[in-house]
Structure formats: structure tokens, C-alpha cells
């Protein structure tokens, strides 16, 4: 029964991080933190759902690896944007500037 509660907590955490992503889209750092919270909730949910399957460890390891790559890529984009523009406002993104 505790796995059911953990699954519900993960679903609520995922929905709350999705709500934070929708409501706080002004800064790139807040977007990256919301995405990281979503990936952590998905990881716990994946681990709970695959706990009885023999390949649960390998699947979870692959997911954590991809989440770490996503976080490092987002941090690299954030650092380069702050160096070039001086801020991390999403409104300063423009695809028309070269």
C-alpha cells in the first residue's frame, strides 16, 4: 500500500512542477529547476513501477544518466546566455539575431 502512496506523491510532485513551469517562465533558471523536479519525480515513479521487473535497475540507470545530461546541457546554456547577454530572461531570446 505504501507504493500506492509514493506513486500519488510522485504524480502530485510532477503536476506541481508542471504548474511551476507554466507559471514561472520569466527566468531560464526557474525553467531548468522545474524540468529537473519533473525528471526526479519521473525517476521515482519509474523506479516504483518497475520495482518488480528484473530490468528495473538498468532502466533507472539509463533514465538518471539522461537526466544528468539534460541538467548539464541546461546549465551550459544558462552560463553562455549570462555571459553573452548579462541576464537569464527568456524574453531576451530571439531567433532572428545572428
Give the integer mean of the pLDDT values: 83
One letter per element, helices H and strands E, the order comes to: HHH
At the first level of CATH, the class is Mainly Alpha
What is the count of structural domains?
A: 1
Find the structural class using helix and strand composition. mainly alpha
C-alpha termini separation: 56 Å
- Total beta strand runs: 0
From the 3D structure, determine the CATH topology: Helix Hairpins
CATH architecture: Orthogonal Bundle
Query: Helical percent range?
Result: over 70%
Helix run count: 3
Structural overview:
With 98 residues, the protein is an all-alpha fold. It has one domain (1-91): Helix Hairpins (Orthogonal Bundle). Helix content is 76%, strand content 0%. It has three helices and no strands. The chain has helices spanning 2-23, 28-49, 56-85. Helix 1 (2-23) packs antiparallel against helix 2 (28-49) and helix 2 runs antiparallel to helix 3 (56-85). The longest helix has 30 residues, at 56-85. The chain is elongated.
Amino acid at each position: 500500500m505504501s507504493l500506492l502512496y509514493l506513486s500519488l506523491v510522485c504524480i502530485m510532485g510532477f503536476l506541481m512542477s508542471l504548474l511551476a513551469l507554466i507559471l514561472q517562465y520569466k527566468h531560464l533558471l526557474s525553467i531548468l529547476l522545474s524540468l529537473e523536479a519533473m525528471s526526479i519525480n519521473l525517476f521515482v515513479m519509474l523506479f516504483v513501477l518497475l520495482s518488480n521487473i528484473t530490468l528495473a535497475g538498468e532502466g533507472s540507470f539509463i533514465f538518471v544518466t539522461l537526466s544528468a545530461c539534460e541538467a548539464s546541457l541546461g546549465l551550459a546554456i544558462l552560463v553562455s546566455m549570462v555571459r553573452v547577454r548579462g541576464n537569464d530572461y527568456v524574453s531576451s531570446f530571439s531567433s532572428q539575431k545572428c
